[in-house]
Amino acid sequence: MRRADLMQYRLELWSPSRRANYRLANRRSTLHCRVDLTALVVILLALLIILMTRTPSMEHTWTLELARVVHSSIVPIATRDEAMRVSLTRKGQIFFGAAKVDPSDLPDQIRDRLQGRVPSTLYLSVDAHAKYADLATVLDGVRRTKISSVTLLTE
């Protein structure tokens, strides 16, 4: 090979632009800067599953505005789980414990709860705006059972 051809070959083999491209390729980072949302999606999915499968633990699904009185006494026994509690809403709905009951089924429900137990006090919570006719229906149902003591809960 002649000397001129050799110089030409070396120039083609090495050029500033090729060398610059080589350095630039080696200098580039392989990491990509971006926000990875997979952890957020997993957490949101877990929260969604937890909230959808959770059963509501509300004991009462109704609201009562109890009558306000001046002279009342505190009855802590009425808040116990084993206490028999009948609630009457302003719409005339009757609840025995946390279950909605028809007025005709109320005496049977109370008798079933009293099986093997000494007749005790029934706690009656009545909405202040409930009709007296609905209260009379509840009291007639209670009268048909063995319960002799009825306590009216107020605020």
Indicate the mean pLDDT: 81
Name the structural class: alpha/beta
Main sheet strand line-up: 3-2-1-4-5
Low-confidence stretches: none
Number of strands: 5
Major sheet: 5 strands, mixed
Count of separate DSSP helical elements: 5
- Do you know the CATH topology of the domain at 76-153? Nucleotidyltransferase, domain 5
Oligomer: single chain
Helix content: 25-40%
Span from first to last CA? 113 Å
What would the principal axes of the Cα set say about the shape? rod-shaped
* CATH architectural group of the domain at 76-153: 2-Layer Sandwich
The radius of gyration computed from the alpha-carbon positions, rounded to a whole number of angstroms, is 40 Å
H/E element order = HHHEEEHEHE
Q: Could you describe the 3D structure shown?
A:
With 155 residues, the chain is an alpha/beta fold. The protein has a domain at 76-153: 2-Layer Sandwich (Nucleotidyltransferase, domain 5), CATH 3.30.420. The protein is built from 5 helices and 5 strands. A 5-stranded mixed sheet has the order 3-2-1-4-5, with helices on one face. The model has no long low-confidence stretch (mean pLDDT 81).
Pick out its properties.
alpha/beta, 155 residues, 5-stranded mixed beta sheet, Nucleotidyltransferase, domain 5, 5 helices
Topology:
Elements: H1 3-13, H2 16-27, H3 38-53, E1 84-88, E2 94-96, E3 99-101, H4 106-114, E4 121-126, H5 132-143, E5 149-153
Parallel strand pairs: 1-4, 4-5
Antiparallel strand pairs: 1-2, 2-3
Short description:
With 155 residues, the chain is of the alpha/beta class. The chain is built from 5 helices and 5 strands, in the order αααβββαβαβ.
